[in-house]
Amino acid sequence: MLSMAWIEELQAFLHPEQIKRNESFHPLGNDGAVTVYPQTEEEIAAVLRYADRHGKKVVIAGRGTKRGFGGQREQADILLSLEHYAGIVEHAAADMTVTVKAGTVFGDLQRALAPYRQKVALDPFWPEEATIGGVIAANDSGPKRLGYGSARDSVIGLRVVYPNGTVIRSGGKVVKNVAGYDMNKLFIGAMGTLGVLSEITLKLRPLAKYESVVLLSFPSGDIHDIRSFSISFLDTMMEPVCFELLNPALSERLTGRPVYTLAIGFEDVENAVHYQEQWVERLRPKAAEMSILAGEEAAAFWRTFYTIAPNGRLARVENGVEAAVKIGVVNLDVLSILRESVLIADRCHVRIEAHGGLGHGLCQAYMHGGEEGVSAAIEELRQTAVRLGGYAIVKHLPLSLRQRVDVWGGKPSYFFLLEGIKRKIDPNKTVNDQRFIGGI
Amino acid sequence: MRKRPIATNDPHIQALARIVGEQAILYRKEDLMAYDCDGFTVHRHLPRAVVFPNSTEQVATIVKYCHEHDLPFLARGAGTGLSGGAIPLNGEVVISLTRMKRLLHVDLENRRAVVEPGFVNLKLTNSVAHRGYYYAPDPSSQYCCTIGGNVAENAGGAHCLKYGVTTNHILGLEVVLPNGEVIEIGGNGVPDPPGYDLLGLLTGSEGTLGIVTKITVRLLKNPEAKQTVLAYFDEVEDASQTVSDIISAGIVPAALEMMDQTAIEAVEAAAFPVGHPKDIAALLLIEVDGISAGIDEQINDILTICRRHHVREVKVAQSEEERARWWANRKTGFGAMGAISPDYLVQDGVIPRSRLPEVLREIADISRKYGLRIANIFHAGDGNLHPLVLFDASKPGETERALAAGSECLKACAAVGGSITGEHGVGIEKKEEMRFIFTDEEILAQTAIRDVFNPKNLLNAGKLFPTPGRCVETKQASSTVK
């Protein structure tokens, strides 16, 4: 343990209660020999400056929901937790913008905005546990991405602590801004490999006056029926905030019906929501069963929905392993991915619950099974996605499997640019080393 | 282009002519004059040559040649940019993309289209309108500006309040890097390609990181219903407060535009007058769209807010024809300045929306201070101001005064936590003003990224970032902005 003396040095800029030595390590990896809890931006900068100068590796975390997302190490030197760096810095209600510290729990932020009838237009998984910083760093989004857009459409400004401790601002506090490069984009979805997000400024949207979810289930299981209904509905002038297909396994869990089910969400004034529900009714195939969840029922549906993904904070899984895979394809190819998810589950003897948005092209597949089966299923799903011109990345997997399965699915032809950006900003590979594509 | 044999001793021009053909290169001074500036005409400089490639391969070959021979070069679309991004400050080889103007692919089921960079913005909407679709970013120059240029500048428009700017609608890019290598990002329009968001970084990089040769864009379905409101106010203050209240009431209008008295005087004297009263202080043009069953409620709320703020007259467009007239009047607003002033300079500051009243007052003070009229015609809904400084370049010193007044307007925007440009870009025009909002370290952080893509800095050098050490460029402001 002679090498651990350096931990004492952290006390030069942190109180003893902000430093915690770790004895055992998490099966998802991405741990630290020591966990530190900075409470100010200066403390974040001091930790990074120290690490960068002394060749220490830093893993960045919010509350740990994404601990199983990327990363090749059991532990780095320092786990920098932003759990105690939380709170709203400024809510300019009249401007519909908010600036918030990265460690703020997403749900807390939404609750603080709700009295003003405002919200951040994002629908990440585990909103009551995930932090806004983690959501932005991992570019998380849910089914409502169709109507809301994604993090890159909401984030208008950032304060980023670079690995050498310098604070760099990008963007600003205004909703429209083209001054200089759009540096915000670099840090969104960068998995913390370019620095620590300190403060995030987001533009806000009004809370909808009314919402509903139409559940349309297809007992025949005929993908062609779903496809032709979807094409005709998406060609209308209706404005669903989500148009998400659930595979039978997921539908069973959420609706009790083990058949393909479309969850079509509407948010608008009440008249307009009902009017759109009638359009679904008018266009639906006769064999499809339709039910409507309104108001609180819809909200309850979504609360459950956002907790179906594996969560890095929860205790270890019994009987096998869990995985989450994000698949990107061109919108309607989501149908092929979901159909494959059913076939692959059978072939690989794993359970796969999957959903995907026919209006935006992203799917999520949650797997549970033996290690071999899960690895094989990820590989097959990836092959399907690549055949369709898309990709598959693994958002959650135990460390032991991450060291065998390529989380990011190979490098793009322009990888040298990604590497070049990393080298400019983090030449010593201080932050989240090997957490991202191609071992960046 | 005239067919004349290449008559020059410049070996580089001869080499470039071999790449694109003798009919696709300009190099005589009289031919180059048209390319010495873009929509920002205060600075001018002749390019070395202008080449007109017709394919990605030709662009790549030209770029490779320039890279190998250390020739500065830049890309140009329709030349409508307002900040000087396409001005060949260093005698660049200008790569005009106007011959690469094909619509390559339309896929309405997946709501996307693939275009070449020279394809004109409005043509895309026109190509899919019969099926009820459109391309959302709508800069005022959309009838002639190219989508490649829109990507370079991250162009906005009147309707980006609700639908976002160019970057929110780009799904994929093919890019020729400054060394001639061709890369493809986002491929056929798959969302969130793994890796850093290079689409987001390239969009709005003002042609300094690469040359876009193919663009996959998102298409939107037309809204079911649309209502447009015109409101006249006797006090600017009341109009600005109305803007604030509409936004904070939770209404997201598709567009929310404002014009002040000087601007109204100009548009009424120009090609598309609509009979606005001459004595009002400001007007608002408000458009709401969406599901028809929800529109009336929003319109009623808007009318109530207008009345609460002493609107003199407010009306809802009764026909598509009336709506179109109101919009033509607004969209040609900049050009209309020509009807009341020999020259004008347009600025592009952005402010938090609630600061509108005080910043407009400050702009009025700046106008008095410099003895120059300033018209305001702008995207009030997202706080994107366009102060138009009116001047006469033939009067000695007036151009300099106009530039100084414009810069001071930006300082006022920066002082309330705003930005120096919302949609026109930094270019040459505002590069020193970057210091109003960024520290030296933050500017270095950006140029470090440029060095990854453009290490020799041959591509569009001298734009976007202030000259280190503040050695301000004082190329004489030659003439006018029309």
| CATH class category name of the domain at 103-221 in chain B | Alpha Beta
Helix content of chain B: 25-40%
CATH architecture of the largest domain in chain A: 2-Layer Sandwich
Number of DSSP-assigned strands of chain A: 18
| Overall pLDDT confidence of chain B | 93
Largest interface: A-B, 82 and 90 residues
Number of discrete domains of chain A: 4
Which regions of chain B have little confidence, pLDDT < 50, spanning 5+ residues?
470-482
Q: Structural class of chain A, please?
A: alpha+beta
User: Which CATH C-level class of the largest domain in chain A is it?
Assistant: Alpha Beta
Rounded radius of gyration of chain B (Å): 23 Å
Determine the number of helices of chain B (DSSP H or I, runs of at least 4 residues).
15
Question: What proportion strand of chain A?
Answer: 25-35%
CATH topology-level name of the domain at 103-221 in chain B: Uridine Diphospho-n-acetylenolpyruvylglucosamine Reductase, domain 3
Assign the CATH architecture of the domain at 103-221 in chain B: 2-Layer Sandwich
Gross morphology of chain A? globular
Distance between the termini of chain B: 26 Å
Neighbour order of strands in the largest sheet of chain B: 15-12-14-13-17-18-16
Largest beta-sheet characterization of chain A:
8 strands, antiparallel
What features would you highlight for this structure?
heterodimer, A: 440 residues, alpha+beta, Uridine Diphospho-n-acetylenolpyruvylglucosamine Reductase, domain 2, Uridine Diphospho-n-acetylenolpyruvylglucosamine Reductase, domain 3, Alpha-Beta Plaits, 4 domains, eight-stranded antiparallel beta sheet, six-stranded antiparallel beta sheet, 18 strands, globular, B: 482 residues, seven-stranded antiparallel beta sheet, 15 helices, 18% strand
Q: How would you describe what is shown here?
A:
The complex is a heterodimer of chains A (440) and B (482). Chain A is an alpha+beta fold and 440 residues long. Chain A has 4 domains: 2-84, Uridine Diphospho-n-acetylenolpyruvylglucosamine Reductase, domain 2, CATH 3.30.43; 88-206, Uridine Diphospho-n-acetylenolpyruvylglucosamine Reductase, domain 3, CATH 3.30.465; 210-305, Alpha-Beta Plaits, CATH 3.30.70.2190; 321-402, Alpha-Beta Plaits (2-Layer Sandwich), CATH 3.30.70. In chain A, 31% of the residues lie in helices and 26% in strands. Chain A has helices at residues 6-9, 41-54, 106-113, 132-137, 145-148, 151-154, 184-187, 223-234, 248-255, 270-283, 296-305, 334-348, 371-387, 399-402, 415-425, and strands spanning 19-21, 31-36, 58-61, 75-81, 88-92, 97-101, 118-120, 155-161, 167-171, 196-206, 210-218, 242-246, 260-268, 289-294, 321-328, 351-357, 362-369, 391-396. In chain A, the strands form 3 sheets. In chain A, strands 14-11-13-12-16-17-15-18 form an 8-stranded antiparallel beta sheet. In chain A, a hairpin with a 5-residue loop joins β8 (155-161) and β9. In chain A, α12 runs antiparallel to α13. The radius of gyration of chain A is 22 Å and the shape is globular. The relative contact order of chain A is 0.13. Chain B has 482 residues and is α+β, with helices and mostly antiparallel strands. Among the domains of chain B are: 11-96, Uridine Diphospho-n-acetylenolpyruvylglucosamine Reductase, domain 2; 103-221, Uridine Diphospho-n-acetylenolpyruvylglucosamine Reductase, domain 3 (2-Layer Sandwich), CATH 3.30.465; 223-337, Alpha-Beta Plaits. In chain B, 32% of the residues lie in helices and 18% in strands. Chain B is built from 15 helices and 18 strands. A 7-stranded antiparallel beta sheet of chain B has the order 15-12-14-13-17-18-16, with helices on both faces. A 5-stranded antiparallel beta sheet of chain B has the order 5-6-10-8-9. In chain B, strands 1-2-4-3 form a 4-stranded mixed beta sheet. In chain B, a hairpin with a 4-residue loop joins β5 and β6. Chain B is globular and about 70 Å long. The interface between A and B is large, with 82 and 90 residues. Chain A: Keywords: FAD, Flavoprotein, Oxidoreductase.
